[in-house]
Structures are given as structure tokens and as C-alpha cells.
């Protein structure tokens, strides 16, 4: 039986940190890593994992780049835009449906159009940062008082940790909201507190 799947290259791809990945991390290409960056910052994505179950397609089996679980309980098999499928997209979709999944190949513009990916890469550099309670409380109290602050104003709240790492960590962990599509994150970017 012929197996077509995403083989992870021996080198790692930038950035190294992930947020919503379950299991081991192995990316087939930089394009696959780029898709994972977007998955990490997609509010509709609960989790994702590399090397999902193989699908039976005509002529063998096929392994997509990711299995994505959404916040509504759905599961979608996703391929990066650089993926050259040995099988037709229709065969992959049919095999995915038989397995209880939907299938989607991301479009190049969806990944590389606009500023979302660049902002996601910048933030995910700090995926492993942790913000001490004091810094977190100072910034959240300031946002509660003022409603909205700029990034530059937020950075002054950090005294126990590096300001950029602390700021990025708070965005990644759902305390702060910035518009990732409006432009590159800069000193004047508006920051809001996320409230449940």
C-alpha cells in the first residue's frame, strides 16, 4: 500500500513556540508552520495536532498536515497551501467524510495575504513567557480604568518581566486583544482587555 503523508524535515521552523498544539510538533514545511501560527491565534480553534490519522484514498493512504478541533466540536483535516496532493482533493474530502472529518486545503492568500501571519509570528516568539501576577494586575487595572490603551502605554506597566515578552504573553493567553489584521503591531496599536 502506498502512503502519502507529511514528513517532518529534520530542522525546526520559525517560530518554535506553539499555543494550541496537542502532542508532538513536526512540520512538513515552513508553509505548514505558517498555517499552524494562524491556527494558534484563531479564536474558533480549540486545538490542533500534527500527523493526524491516515485517510484511505485510491492507491494508498494519505496523511494531512493537521487535525483541527474547533470550539463547536467539529474536526477538520487541514493542508498547507504548498501541499502537492498525490490524490485528488475530491478523493481526500470523501475519505475525510468517511472518517468523520471535513477537509480543507488553505489558500495561499489566506495564509500570506495581509498582516495576520506576521503579527502571529511576532507574538508566538513569546509563547513560553509567563507574566508575574503583579505586572498582569497593573496592566489589567489600567485597561479597566481607561478602556483602551496603546501598546506603548501598556509596556510601561511591566516591571517584573521584559515588557515585549509580557505583552505578547498576555495577548496569547487571552487577557489582551489587538487587531491582527489592521496592520503590524506597533507602538500606537490599540489594546483592549478581553472580558468574559
TrEMBL record:
- The domain of life for this entry's organism is Bacteria
Q: What name appears for this protein in its UniProt entry?
A: TnsA endonuclease N-terminal domain-containing protein
Organism annotation: Pseudorhizobium pelagicum
Amino acid at each position: 500500500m502506498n502512503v502519502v503523508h507529511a514528513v517532518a524535515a529534520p530542522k525546526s521552523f520559525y517560530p518554535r513556540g506553539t499555543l494550541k498544539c496537542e502532542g508532538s510538533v513536526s512540520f512538513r514545511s515552513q508553509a505548514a508552520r505558517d498555517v499552524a501560527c494562524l491556527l494558534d491565534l484563531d479564536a474558533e480553534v480549540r486545538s490542533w495536532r500534527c500527523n493526524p490519522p491516515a485517510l484511505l484514498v485510491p492507491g494508498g493512504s494519505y496523511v494531512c498536515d493537521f487535525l483541527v478541533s474547533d470550539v463547536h466540536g467539529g474536526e477538520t483535516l487541514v493542508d498547507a497551501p504548498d501541499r502537492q496532493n498525490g490524490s485528488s482533493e475530491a478523493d481526500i474530502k470523501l475519505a475525510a467524510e468517511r472518517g468523520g472529518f471535513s477537509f480543507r486545503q488553505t489558500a495561499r492568500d489566506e495564509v500570506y495575504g495581509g498582516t495576520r501571519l506576521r503579527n502571529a509570528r511576532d507574538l508566538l516568539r513569546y509563547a513560553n513567557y509567563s507574566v508575574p501576577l503583579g505586572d498582569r494586575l497593573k496592566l489589567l487595572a489600567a485597561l479597566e480604568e481607561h478602556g483602551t490603551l496603546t501598546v506603548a502605554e501598556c509596556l510601561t506597566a511591566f516591571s517584573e518581566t521584559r515588557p515585549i515578552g509580557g505583552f505578547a504573553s498576555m495577548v496569547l493567553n487571552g487577557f489582551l486583544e489587538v487587531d491582527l489584521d489592521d496592520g503590524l503591531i506597533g507602538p500606537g496599536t490599540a489594546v483592549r482587555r478581553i472580558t468574559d
